[in-house]
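I am still getting used to backbone structure tokens and would like to learn alongside you. To get us started, please write out a protein record for me. Once you have written the record down, we can walk along the chain together.
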Amino acid sequence: MLIKTPPKGMRDILPADLKLRQQILDVITKIYNSYGFTQIETPCVEDINTLTSKQGGDNEKLIFKILKRGEKLENASADNICDLGLRYDLTVPLSRYYANNSGNLPNVFKAIQIGNVWRAERPQKGRFRQFVQCDIDIIGEESHLAEAELISATTTALNALGLDGFTVKINDRRILKGLAQKAGFAEEDFDKVFIALDKLDKIGFDGVVGELVEEGLAEEKAKTVLNFALSISAEGLEKAKEVLKGVVDEKVFDNLAEIIAINCCDKFKLKFDCTLVRGMNYYTGPIFEIEVDGFGVSVAGGGRYDNMLGKFLNRSVPACGFSIGFERIFTVLKEKGVSFGEQPKKTAYVVDSRCGADIISKVFKEAEKIRSQGGICLVTKRIKNFGFLLEQLKKDGYSDIFQVNEKGEIRITD
């Protein structure tokens, strides 16, 4: 017997949910378009060498790999049987896309990319193997105007969705590197420090120290880097500049201060957080996340990744991006029972099975009039259990339900 459930970690999406998902995407896309971003599309499959080029951090361990086909598979060695893989994010494909098409794109390219990505991780509540990412990126802008605009566009989109009470946290990877250096860690251990520090809100101070000690790093240095990070976060950028003087260029702190000043408003809180890490190791400068009050996890995140495109083009190209965690946003809005925009009136004609072609033709013409005026009209056949059909139509939002008998007589259902 064939299995009727979807693969583990993947979902069937019912019509009502799909409708809400599309409404959310329409709102987000409209806002991003108003900022001058344009939508692009890349294949869901990329060359395996592109996906395993040390740009995606731990996500590269979660790639769904695709076997070579035909003779190529037969002649492949045991360690070379895959040539393609499903994309695990949208940033790596965007970089490849820009490198391939840069001659046809503006000097400063502002892209929207929305699509499914796949990660072969352990499924759990709220975490899937196939899910939608919703990204905006600015390529070619080296100043912090890119970061400021990405934050503005993303927060505007979240506000348009009816979300409020959220906080934008901002940091810089160069500050994190400065902290690790100041605490006495060798550069080859920085990634271990960042991976552990990224778990601070989940496992606490002692948990992070313990994890670093398990990695073979000195306990004293682990406590030092954490104390630095926490004290700086509590006191702000000036404290960071003081602690890291001579270790981190002062321009790094000045840029963050300007980004914060540009985006200062009453609609959300924006704060410097020295413990913010972001998981991807391709980030090179400012990084940011958005948390919604009472939700407990970030709903959007991003940062600057100036070195990634150089791996395709052999030249430096500045780039910065922000990604909305679409599945989390959908969950929040669904729980709130939110809907967007005025919904068109829905009308249904329930036609008796004995109706001839002439009667059905007239019904079709009436239905077309309704559709031409912007309404939704369903023509369906009457079933024996009319009560059940009526219940389903009302549940689906059909306010006017007309019954058509075999004589062509039409009456509205109360």
The longest strand covers residues 109-118. Residues 346-412 form one domain. The mean pLDDT is 89.
